[in-house]
Write a structure and sequence with these properties.
heterodimer, A: 113 residues, mainly beta, 7-stranded mixed beta sheet, 4-stranded antiparallel beta sheet, globular, B: 111 residues, 9 strands
Chain lengths: 113, 111
Amino acid sequence: GAGVSQSPSNKVTEKGKDVELRCDPISGHTALYWYRQSLGQGLEFLIYFQGNSAPDKSGLPSDRFSAERTGGSVSTLTIQRTQQEDSAVYLCASSPRRLSEQYFGPGTRLTVT
Amino acid sequence: DAKTTQPTSMDCAEGRAANLPCNHSTISGNEYVYWYRQIHSQGPQYIIHGLKNNETNEMASLIITEDRKSSTLILPHATLRDTAVYYCIVLTQGGSEKLVFGKGMKLTVNP
């Protein structure tokens, strides 16, 4: 079946611009996670959705970062006024239930110039 | 912060068993041990998880010591495609169950 998909696969943007990254989780998965992976920081958690609500936003690095999830499905991660340190691979994962494996998408590589 | 300690790297010969160790000496009763791996330029891939009993699936076996302070992931017949960074993660039941990745261990399978 279809896995987690993310778009775009690559995004190059100028410093100061806003970007939107999209995640399509596996159908029926109620939990959705955003992570990012950068050279200096490894893989780090950003935000967790259960349905449309986000009970854990503890990993968002600043108020320039926000995310939403609609219809319990698609999620969008928005970064406003991008900075060079935002350059990273942004990974989305979904999970069908508690204590279950997380299925990761291929990621979006964001480069801020 | 990651609650696990893994070697930085390990080599294994193709076709041999790969035994990947992990220390989690501060693990508590409601925490599970999960293993993921990341092949270059791909998203992480789930391998296996367990609480206190040994577990086996089509990919690997997980051996957890009786005191639960360490575990070993076993790939019974390593192939070149198993070359990856392997992450041992302790996950707390309840809450967001987010994955906290450490530095992981680079496994290189050699022909």
